[in-house]
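#lab-general

N.A. 3:47 PM
ok so I finally got the sequence cleaned up, no stray characters, all 201 residues accounted for. can someone with queue access submit it? mine expired

B.Y. 3:52 PM
send it over

N.A. 3:53 PM
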Amino acid sequence: MIAIIDYGAGNIKSLQFALDKLGKPSKLTMDPEEIKQADSIILPGVGAFKDAMEALQRYQLDSLLKDEAANGKPILGICLGMQLFYEFSEENGGCAGLGLLTGSVNRISDSVKVPHMGWNILTANQDNSLFDQLGKEPYVYFVHSYAVDRLAEDTLIASAEYGGRVPAIVQDKNITGMQFHPEKSGEIGITLLKNYEELIS
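B.Y. 4:20 PM
back already:
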């Protein structure tokens, strides 16, 4: 079972629908025992970094996620969920994140329209089975105003271009992040979720 963290920071029905399409049972939950018993965890998220961190802290899910990550459980962060993995975001005057990945989050360059909202091409930065069956120039759907701008380069799996490089997929051992919304990215998104599930199974 996949535990989707239901902490009020994301439209998660479309994510659950995408997993159902793949035949992957999932449950929206904030219950610590259900999260501990799950085979893997998805941390979704839209909205403000600080609000999301405060919600995780309020329900003591921040420490639980750190413990599960340390225990080697696969965790996937989507959009804001990916950003929360990092050490710090400058949004709203600055806020510490979960610190599961090394790096920080900053606002997208004002040289382009912000928020970044729409379809962009994924470019592979290294070989990874997540790219299996995606074809040439796969398009995925982004909605965000902030992006990771400092990270360990060996964790960067794929990027997009929007006012500079936007890390789009990151991975470090059992921690994977997708800045875009795979559940809103059509067949490419479904294939990415399928590849991810196969990778961690």
